[in-house]
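Section 5: illustrative case.
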């Protein structure tokens, strides 16, 4: 799989097995693909005290980057109780281009709680809990999904602006829908990479993301080169 066949794949599978240990799903009979994901995060302060806005843009490519796969637009607002805890309200527009099919559009309303823990042995942990209400065009039912992410960041001694980043995010469907969602484990994402802090207002993060998707037929594993740019205004 060209670029994606490197040691991170083996390491990610080890972490993934621990992340979903005990779940009744097989790791065999999967389809694999190499993908590229690019993300731009922008945030800024609103006139009201402790209120902020956020806007994310996520273009994604499949088949080793040969075909455009998906575009996600994610505006949101959030309130900071303090520097560590915040609550969010957002709305996603997802336009997908599955192979051999016409484009699909999904809209999601979501609520989120985020908390950053005190550093332990120079490692900072952040928890993000998100509830989504998903609506697919041409269908009436609503899919409810829980997403739980834990992120760890550790400064690297080689340079004060460079940090090691790891996160794992588990997706759980809370109900079944006519358009294909089924109750239970939906997918898991494990990321290993590095973050470079340009300034207090911007940073760049890049690394390998292992995505496991649990489907009704053949499960999928995607090996993703993910790059994220963040700006704070």
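Designed sequence:
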């Amino acid at each position: 799989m060209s670029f994606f066949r490197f040691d991170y794949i083996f390491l990610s599978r080890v972490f993934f097995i621990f992340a979903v240990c005990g779940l009744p799903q097989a790791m065999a009979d999967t389809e694999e693909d190499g993908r590229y994901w690019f993300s731009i995060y922008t945030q800024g302060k609103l006139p009201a005290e402790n209120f902020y806005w956020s806007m994310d843009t996520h273009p994604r490519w499949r088949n080793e980057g040969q075909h455009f796969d998906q575009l996600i637009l994610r505006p949101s607002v959030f309130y900071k109780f303090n520097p560590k805890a915040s609550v969010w309200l957002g709305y996603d527009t997802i336009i997908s281009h599955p192979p051999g099919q016409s484009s699909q559009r999904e809209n999601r309303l979501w609520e989120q709680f985020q908390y950053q823990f005190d550093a332990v042995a120079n490692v900072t942990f952040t928890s993000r809990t998100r509830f989504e209400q998903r609506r697919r065009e041409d269908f009436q039912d609503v899919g409810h999904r829980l997403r739980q992410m834990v992120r760890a960041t550790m400064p690297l001694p080689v340079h004060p602006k460079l940090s090691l980043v790891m996160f794992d995010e588990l997706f759980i469907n809370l109900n079944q829908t006519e358009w294909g969602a089924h109750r239970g484990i939906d997918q898991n994402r494990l990321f290993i990479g590095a973050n470079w802090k340009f300034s207090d207002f911007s940073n760049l993060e890049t690394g390998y993301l292992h995505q496991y998707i649990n489907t009704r037929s053949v499960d999928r594993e995607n090996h993703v080169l993910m790059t994220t740019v963040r700006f704070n205004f």
